[in-house]
Write a structure and sequence with these properties.
heterodimer, A: 384 residues, nine-stranded antiparallel sheet, 12 helices, B: 245 residues, mainly alpha, three-stranded antiparallel sheet, Vacuolar-sorting protein SNF8 (chain B), ESCRT-2_cplx_Snf8 (chain B), coiled coil (chain B), WH_DNA-bd_sf (chain B), protein transport (chain B)
Chain lengths: 384, 245
């Protein structure tokens, strides 16, 4: 702030006005000064600040400006320009403040015009009109220009980064605005669908008449318990999916021993698709339909809640017999689910289910201890 | 005269019912027409939105979270079906379903080591490791993806124990006791029956029972060389998080 000095408002020869702005306040570093609501004029050699009640202006030679930054405004603050200044040369005329510890000043643009002024200022700095005039302290100017060149380079890079950040944040705010509007629309759809669903509840309507409505519910992702209970949530789409899954996975399931965990089905079908993946619910719906569609694969749910897709008509008794046979080979130590999994090459969950199923059919007995859960062949039956 | 007697009365009633049905289906038809029109309009808006901001959804976890929360607040599940508008036009589905696949595969690959319990942080670390720096996921993303996987019946769910969250892939129930014991184990990493009993204020038998179950499912390991035997929980091993596999 000590670089500003009192001067005449008239322009010297060779000086021309480049830009001006109103309602400017000066900041000494980060502190507000009393110099507010003034008229700022940019010439090709200096910045002039004048309050209309005064005749003289505060001047700042552009040769002292080393770096310009801009600060975007917010709700409570106006946009500002930050001017980093070099130290004043000896013989610099005196100004309102003898010394300040901040080597930068800020200009606050209460009524806007910040960016256009910044551009004009930048141009004036690049033009460096004061160097063409014979000015004292050439050494200082050279030093200032030398350091300025470096800063201009960095300045350019910093500007780019700042611009990108600004653009990104502007984009985000626009995105959030658009999102809000979109959600408003969606909300209307939800209430409309609710009233339609209520009508359907009151008057019995056939399944065919509701197909279009149900497909709308699916498109929007609305879960309507009423229509779900009455008509199920399967649509034509799921019928189509059921066939696709059965076709794609019949062989892999066969290779896996005729049984595959539903979570693995989900992974495999999605990996195969690559794009336009299926939701877990889609997969469950599709597999639920398999039995009614008479497909080679069908869904089976164990008592524990584990779901598998297996070859239709998989003989459960055969599986139990096979399990019992494997157990018989391990009469001495018994087998844990992990052992069976390793031996038969099936996933752990599946091995566990096979053992539990064998137990239910009295082909295996369990031994629960702190060693874990192990199964043994049922010798009570076979040997009694 | 009894109102409900006689064939005539029955017939009259039926005619009335049919009239109501007609009226009802008329009203429905109008509303359905209205909905069809609105769906078209909505579709256009969504396409517009997607054209401008689809990338934001892919790259910005904050935006994704906001999007999901707004959908939930109006009663819409954008991840319900891959056939939904949201998935088809915004591609939200592909993002979360693919994440689901990755989580399932990770659980299967590591369950021999941790018995089917993985810390959310470890999953986050491993999955982000594979992704580009500008394509990172957040823990909110993982939680949402796993929530969807529940319906597959392999017992996948997110459980909060104490300060952190874990992903369980053990079907069959972990009771409150088991969860409480795991919560305690998280803070001490290893324990004995006695230490757990005094920390939790339970009887030693109660601790033993819970520990037995956790041993059985493979979440806890027992070190018999310690006197008294100590129990360790691989899911909480720090090293697991940094082990490259």
């Amino acid at each position: 702030m000590d670089r500003w000095f009192w001067c005449d408002s008239s322009l010297s020869s060779g000086e021309a006005v480049a830009a001006s702005a109103k309602s400017i306040r000066l900041y000494d570093g980060d502190k507000k000064t009393g110099y507010e609501d003034g008229h700022l004029t940019l010439t090709n050699q200096r910045l002039l600040w004048r309050h209309e009640s005064q005749s003289s202006s505060l001047g700042l030679p552009l040769s002292l400006v080393v770096l310009i930054e801009d600060e975007a405004g917010g709700f409570t603050s106006s946009p500002k320009l930050v001017l980093h200044l070099a130290s004043p040369p000896p013989g610099h005329p005196s100004g309102p403040i003898a010394s300040s510890h901040a080597s930068y000043v800020r200009l606050s643009f209460k009524h806007g015009g910040c960016s256009s002024f910044q551009q004009a200022l930048q141009k004036a700095l690049e033009a460096r009109a004061w160097e063409t005039l014979s000015m004292p302290q050439p050494a200082n100017s050279v030093k200032a220009s030398g350091s300025k060149k470096i800063h201009t380079g960095i300045l350019g890079i910093e500007r780019d980064i700042q611009k990108k950040q600004e653009a990104a944040s502007q984009n985000i705010s626009r995105a959030f605005e658009d999102l809000k509007n979109l959600m408003g629309l969606a909300k209307d759809m939800v209430s409309l669908s609710r009233s339609i669903s209520n009508k359907i509840k009151e008057h019995s309507v056939s399944a065919d008449d509701t197909t279009q409505f149900r497909s709308y519910l699916l498109s929007l992702g609305i879960d309507d318990p009423v229509t779900r209970e009455k008509y199920g949530s399967a649509t034509q789409y799921h019928h189509h999916l059921a066939r696709e899954v059965a076709r794609a996975l019949e062989e892999p399931v066969q290779e896996a021993g005729g049984v595959m965990l539903l979570s693995e089905v989900y992974c495999r079908i999605n990996r195969a698709r690559g794009l336009q993946l299926l939701s877990p619910e889609d997969v469950v719906q599709a597999c639920n339909l398999m039995r009614t569609l008479d497909l080679p694969l069908s869904l089976h749910t164990f008592e524990s809640g584990v779901q598998v897709v297996q070859i239709t008509g998989l003989d459960q008794d055969k599986v139990v017999k096979d399990t019992a046979q494997v157990l018989a080979c391990h009469e001495g130590d018994g087998m844990s689910a992990g052992d069976l999994a390793r031996e038969c090459g099936v996933p752990l969950l599946l091995a566990r289910e096979r053992l539990l199923q064998a137990e239910r059919c009295a082909q295996a007995v369990r031994d629960e201890s702190s060693e874990g859960l192990r199964f043994y062949p049922n010798l009570f039956f076979s040997r009694s | 005269m009894r109102r409900r007697a006689g064939v005539g009365a029955i017939q009259r009633q039926k005619i009335q019912q049919d009239k109501f049905k007609e009226k009802g289906s008329e009203i429905q038809e109008n509303q359905l027409e209205q909905m069809t029109l609105q769906m078209e309009k909505f579709r256009e808006h969504l396409e517009d939105f997607a054209a401008k901001h689809k990338n934001e959804i892919k790259k910005n976890p904050q935006f994704r979270k906001q999007f999901q929360e707004m959908c939930a607040s109006i009663g819409v599940d954008p991840l319900a079906s891959g056939k939904g508008f949201w998935c088809e036009m915004l591609g939200v589905g592909d993002f979360y379903y693919e994440l689901g696949v990755q989580v399932v595969e990770l659980c299967v690959a590591t369950s021999h080591r941790n018995g089917g319990v993985l810390s959310l942080d470890e999953v986050l670390l491993r999955l982000n490791h594979r992704r580009r720096p500008d394509n990172q996921i957040s823990s909110d993303d993982i939680v949402r993806a796993v929530k969807k996987l529940r319906v597959l019946g392999s017992g996948m769910e997110v459980v909060a124990t104490g300060s952190s969250q874990f992903i369980y892939s053990i079907p069959g129930e972990l009771s409150m006791d088991h969860t409480a014991l795991l919560q305690h184990a998280e803070s001490v990493v290893h324990l004995t029956v006695a230490s757990a009993a005094s920390a939790l204020g339970w009887s030693q038998e109660r601790v033993s029972r819970a520990l037995d179950h956790l041993l059985r499912v493979g979440v806890a390991w027992r070190d018999d060389q310690d006197r008294p035997p100590s129990f360790w929980f691989p899911a909480f091993f720090q090293q697991c998080a940094t082990a490259a596999e």
